[in-house]
Amino acid sequence: MNTKPYIEKHKDRFINELIELLKIPSISADPAYKNDVIKTSEHIKKSLEDAGCDLVEICETPGYPIVYGEKIINPDLPTVLVYGHYDVQPPDPINLWDSPPFEPVIKKTELHPEGAIFARGACDDKGQMYMHVKALEYLTANNELPCNVKFMIEGEEEVGSESLGWFLENNREKLANDVILISDTGMISKEVPSITTGLRGLSYVEVEVTGPNRDLHSGLYGGAVANPINILCDMIAQLHDENNHITIPGFYDKVEELSKEERTEMAKAPFSQEDYNKALDIAQEHGEKGYTTNERNSIRPTLDVNGIWGGYTGEGAKTVIASKAYAKISMRLVPDQDWKEITDLFQKHFESIAPKSVKVKVSPHHGGTAYVTPIDSIGYQAASKAYEDTFGKTPIPQRSGGSIPIVALFENELNSKSILMGFGLDSDAIHSPNEHFGIWNYLKGIETIPHFYKHFATMSK
Amino acid sequence: MNTKPYIEKHKDRFINELIELLKIPSISADPAYKNDVIKTSEHIKKSLEDAGCDLVEICETPGYPIVYGEKIINPDLPTVLVYGHYDVQPPDPINLWDSPPFEPVIKKTELHPEGAIFARGACDDKGQMYMHVKALEYLTANNELPCNVKFMIEGEEEVGSESLGWFLENNREKLANDVILISDTGMISKEVPSITTGLRGLSYVEVEVTGPNRDLHSGLYGGAVANPINILCDMIAQLHDENNHITIPGFYDKVEELSKEERTEMAKAPFSQEDYNKALDIAQEHGEKGYTTNERNSIRPTLDVNGIWGGYTGEGAKTVIASKAYAKISMRLVPDQDWKEITDLFQKHFESIAPKSVKVKVSPHHGGTAYVTPIDSIGYQAASKAYEDTFGKTPIPQRSGGSIPIVALFENELNSKSILMGFGLDSDAIHSPNEHFGIWNYLKGIETIPHFYKHFATMSK
Q1: Over 80: is that where the pLDDT of B405 sits?
Q2: What is the end-to-end Cα distance of chain B in Å, rounded?
Q3: Which of A249, A268, A436, B348 is the most interior residue, by most CB within 10 Å?
Q4: Beta bridge partners of B207
């Protein structure tokens, strides 16, 4: 198999097609973009048909539709199910983008001398998902598809994949497969390919602290009533101790502790704390005592405030004591923490530390369970060989700090292992302003994926 | 002197004139309203001319103009200088208003069976300032003005009166007076008139905490870099100890401590903690240990967060670690704290408690010094007699928690004492949604003020 000539011949079209897809602002978190999200699902349907699927359906769900596509060449052959998502994160803070988030531009960067596409969703996950569509085009156009393939592309990943569980439950037969293939993660670098073998779980909550029943003049009331912003800050500060351990009782009870050997193995991955700090322009790293940076963001659970607001936030000064203050707080979880249990523990603890002078409301948003993939499965080995074919190197198995909660769901509902072949880089700024995806990475993904099909079909015999 | 018949005859016009003034959104904090602020100054000029001033000028300053007006009947007679402001607080949060803030409506409330005017600035300070314009109209229309009068109405009070110091310095002769009269405070209740004898000072700062140089994905980086929102919360939490004392070193060094006798005297003012809590719908009051509610909000300095923001604050969830987090923080000060010194102490302390993993910037906004009026002055005694004439009761001298920083400035620049005859109520919701001013209070002010002129002229002989 040599995928390169076809890709070389069609690469301009492959890039332009992705750019068209990136122009649609499919922000699932904001109801104002509902029509764009739906328009994107129709766009995906057309792309799958063009790439060679025999059947493509836009499947209605309680939320945004899921695009299902398939090409069944022989029911006796193994089946690969490709998962991806067509929705994107909100682009805020919009003023920090160098170019509008939904007007894709190609720019060269130090890491991407071949150019990178700058747009919201360029990497997460439109770009990475579209690699699979183009890989299918390669396989069908060249008559090299060695097995059956199914696509399941959803529109609610960035808001917790709420409809996906429902969809899996109701379509087990349709979705039956031998392995699930996902590109929604990254690799260590262009020179060091890696396969993600672990993902963290997530519990995302919103909290509201209410003090007086209306905004008050801070001169007339200041000092005599509980200020909900000060109280919220106090309560958030209490969630970590002086060693940056999380203080929620029971939070660490089920945390999988890695052995010394496993931690030593992890520490071999190439990493420079100095470069890391320099890239983020920070004078010092920060995190749980007793763990390294790579451990803190992969094998350890964390708690971060993702947003906070209350009182007067406009220009100038307003001497007000707000009635309410709010925060969005998420916890990244590790095996074997149960996200629903952790959400309950958070809620109970947060309510328990509130002083009597305020009222507190905790609203769970969504969550998901952590996941670890075995590296001796046929799926992992097929992926590893695919990278060897196109990178000339064996990829490194890597635990990631991110969460794709649906990976655990797939295992439960569909009884399948997921293989996480990510081609993005940490520096791609996903979820941040100026998200981008290297053209080299995009084309390398399209080049590598067909090799996975070849090896998986061969090894499954 | 009997001011009642004239007021009874003209009260509908007095109310309608105020309503017209309230329709102009003179929000000094927001540059978007610049034209409206200037339009309001022209409106005030016209009102002062109509009320009987011989000379009215719109005086340009480095900021918004100051309206100066005068009626000099005899240079040998004493002169009263009336101060007020025509700018208003921003109306945020706008969605909590029951009617639009700049479309005044009259509604009856439990405390205001005669009706109250609901609009931003109804009480603070357009309504209270306009009482003085109408009091002048009464005095000139009825030929009862017993002394000279000057008006100085500014447009930057809600943003720190930055141009006022410059104006005073450059116009000492023009502004020469024997007493300054201000209605920008409240009274205990409609049955218990009071004169404000103390005001708190103010130091208002804005803080910015910067973590990584861009927003980051909380999965990939969570736990390994300092989250500026968590750090900001930690730092804010550290500003109070477990007894709600402020922890800034040196903060209390110059605080005037009241004697047991003075505190016993203060405790005699009618007050029900139960009613207070009920009115604010709070289960428990909150404040510095060892002091009562009325002490906490008048004779004690305080520190409150007036606004906080950072990260994702929109609908739904975004798993982001923000690059920056912000807060607006103000401190109410008491005699003899120096606001510039306190601002410096805050800045040094806040910078010193920042961990190395973040950068911190403190930007002072504005400030002012606390003030105490002696109750044996002619001005205070004349005001006291005026209330006796119209309320049939001697007013109670009261220390207020609010700040009118310019009162200390007047004493320094113009060598005059200020008399604070406020007719508002704590429940008027100034600086809050649904600000209002009772029609009874408005007319009672117009009724009472001319009596002050009478007594002040007589007692000054």
Answers
A1: no
A2: 18
A3: A436
A4: B327, B362
Cβ of residue A452 closer than 8 Å to a chain B Cβ: no
To the nearest whole Å, the CA of B298 is away from the closest chain A CA by 8
A201-255+301-368 in CATH: which number?
A: 3.30.70.360
Asked if A53 is an interface residue toward chain B (Cβ–Cβ < 8 A), one would say: no
Which residue in A103, A92, A140 sits closest to B315, CA to CA?
Answer: A92
Quick one: tokens of B402?
Answer: 């609010």
Q: Do A319 and B306 touch (CB under 8 A)?
A: yes
Contact A433, A93 (CB under 8 A): yes
Please tell me the distance from the alpha carbon of residue A360 to that of residue A297, in angstroms, as a whole number. Answer: 30
Could you tell me which residues are beta bridge partners of residue A324? A210
Q: Which amino acid is at A219?
A: G
Give Cα separations from A290 to A9, A296, A381, B148 (angstroms): 52, 9, 34, 76
Per-domain residue ranges for chain B? Answer: 4-199+370-460, 201-255+301-368
Query: Is B176 exposed, middle or buried, given 0-12, 13-18 or 19+ CB atoms closer than 10 A?
Result: middle
Distance CA A422, CA A400 (A): 11
- E strands within A14-118? 55-59, 66-71, 79-85, 105-107, 116-118
Q: What is the pLDDT of residue A315?
A: 83
**CA atoms of A32 and B252, how far apart (whole Å):** 51
CA–CA gap between residue B187 and residue B421 (Å, rounded): 8
**Are B218 and B212 a contacting pair, CB within 8 Å?**
no
The first and second tokens of residue B28, run together, are: 């000094």
Establish if A188 touches chain B: CB-CB under 8 angstroms.
no
Tell me which CATH homologous superfamily contains domain B4-199+370-460. Answer: Zn peptidases (3.40.630.10)
Question: What sign results for the dihedral spanned by CA atoms A242, A244, A248, A253?
Answer: negative
Q: Which of residues 241-260 of A touch B (CB under 8 A)?
A: none
Model ipTM over 0.85: no
d(C-alpha A244, C-alpha A352), whole Å: 20
- Contact yes or no for B187/B396 (Cβ under 8 A): no
Instruction: Give per-residue pLDDT as tens, B110-138.
Output: 999 999 999 999 999 999 999 999 999 99
